Fold this protein.
Amino acid sequence: MLLDRTGVIDDRWSVVIADDPTPDGPAILPRERLAEATGRTGPTGLHIANDADPHDLVAAFDRLALISVGFPSFADGRGFSVARVLRELDFTGRLRATGPVIADQFAYLLECGFDEVAVPESIAQRQPAEQWLEQLSRLSTTYQRGALAGAADRGVERASILDQRRGASR
Amino acid sequence: MPKAFIPVVFTANDLVEGDTVYLGAEGWIRDIAGAHVAATKDEAEILRAAAEEGVSANLVIGPYDVAVTLDSGSPVPVKRRERIKASGQTTMPVGLAAQAAAEEIRARAA
Amino acid sequence: MYRYDEFDHRFVAERTAEFRDQVKRRLAGSLSEDEFKPLRLMNGLYLQLHAYMLRVAIPYGTLGSRQMRMLAHIAETYDRGYGHFTTRQNIQFNWPKLKDVPAILDDLASVEMHAIQTSGNCIRNVTSDPLSGVDPLEIEDPRITAELLRQWSSLHPEFTFLGRKFKIAVTGSATDRAAIAVHDIGLAIVRNEAGEQGYRVLVGGGQGRSPFIAKELRAFLSREELLPYLTAALRVYNLHGRRDNKYKARIKILVHELGIEGFAAQVEAEYARLDADAVRHPEEEWDRIAAYFAIPDLAPRGDADASFERALKLDPGFADWVARNSHAHKITGYRAATVSLKPVGGIPGDATAEQMRVLADIAEQYSADEMRITHEQNIVLPHVGLGDLHKVYRALSGIGLDAPNRGLVTDIIACPGLDYCALATARSIPVAQRISERFGDTQRQKDIGPLSIKISGCINACGHHHVGHIGILGIDKAGVESYQLTLGGEPADQPAVGERTGPGFSYEELPDAIETVIDTYIAHREGPDETFLQAYRRLGMGPFKEALYDAA
């Protein structure tokens, strides 16, 4: 199941595994095959593990329309920081969280810079899209400041309590 | 000679209440005295499967087997940890212990 | 004391509603136990040996009487009439039912309390000095910083699924009563040469199976830099801390493996990159929080009080208690008083609902409505007038909490141990009780002088045994409880990890072994003024080892 903040969306990307041939059209390549991004026709994405260093990808940002960050388990939170750093490095393409993350993490994922999550069917069966969207509306405020640039455009910016207080006292 | 099988019962905690439970003939029960004792490895595997069903059915969490000895037919855990799990903590807050002692004296007098 | 505004109220209410929904989804099978477990832990709910356990946050240990009364209410309504105050300045209830927990969280929210992040692999309840705002030598009340951090760390989107738990402690005084050197991050409020207030930052301290004393990460960090700098440190930990082995996942291992210089370089690099302006707290927010921690309006009093002096002369028990359990106060005519939750033979840190209610009444009447939980599992009444001290003492006597033993041999820290804890390998509480009974005589305790005994019922070291002057670690040795002794540990004053004496002792032998250690100290000390720790540091392990093992 592929979801963004509006609910289930169509997945137009094909995921290329290992040495498989790359199809035309939107394709997500494994990290080792980044070099193939040059000269492809059709949008290119890249799948990285959560221990990849985002700084290594900066030079390739303009060739990548999407980066998918792997979550081996919902409890392994490295991907949150990876996404945050990618956004702070000005990656403006689409960010996808791929793996068994859970509905209860949806707001955190979006706030760290992800646009969409691709979860396995085993999770989708137990946690349909409604549960994911409900989670988004459940917590209306956050104590943290420093929402990412563009967060408001992506509709994921929850107002910081600290900033709301500041506004209220003026 | 193969090592003798030590009889086991299965314990877990009730999902909703948290209480210690044991797998008995009629399902999950609070008192170890009624726990189903597996005397062989095969019986233990059957009980383990039944215990896992309790997990799938969202009845219990964290089932595992507990080695027991039989004291006039009733299972008694071998390990101290499991004896404490079966019979409650060995100590009480002073205020409550005093209260309990006083109640016991009153009950005996009555 | 900090008070919730509309935003804090809404935040906690929404969080409680979220947990209620998670419980519902768990029971319906939408969340598996593996998925639910970290979610419930981040709301303070464990599964222990006999039952669930709910750990309620008492931020930096500070609470008022209406909050204490609510804890008493919860103990009676949803539990078995008592609670357990912990070394993290929190309280644990040992017998709640999952189905009742949302209602308990509602009750807590009604008095501005919660159980958020008292467990789980996230930033835990920030701890601090129980004498905050009271100590005359304090540079700044550390609770302002602790509250700022509480808010910043609550449901942080980036740092809520860390490799392991993360504990921060803050002290604002030259005397460290928050044990900052055994925390993941320790903050000491300091002044630099220019006279500006900021922080000395320590990192990588911890206990558990591999104890480490924290190292200095920054000699001076200005207040404005606090949140951005911690963001950088947490990010380095989140990205690079080990995930392959639960027992090597704390930041102390990362710091150890990279070396403090290597770790510091990574933090500084990340700090230089991130957008500090976006993350730092607004100055108005600091001022807003600080206003809550101003010293309460205390009626002016003289520096002497005739009734106090009279009571000291007439009531020797009171004189002992004042000498041992009271502390200097910033305001003339006031003292802070430690209520010992270590009655002789009692369970360290336990209080019954009745005791909680009386404590609330005492605090309301005599201590500006305020209490503090200490990491030694005691309670401080921070603002007691000299003329009221005897009334407070008598009220405490009425509930059995008048022990004049703060910092003495019976002021024992103990984890719940095998009697409650699913991880424990040996009992702790009955061990503490037997030692307490052995040394219960007030005069004997005074003769022995300052001495901390700390007991853990397993290698995870929740009872802080590594930093006990005498540490006791209970393990399981082929089905039998065995207790290892360590000597010379200390959490604050030249922090040190204790050294093992040698082979362990059985449950039955242990009180005698402790007595042997103490008798050896008494026999070798240079005089009554040389404390156990000083004597141990002078003598080393030799005479203790000899007395424990050679006689046999």
About this structure: Chain A has a mean pLDDT of 92.
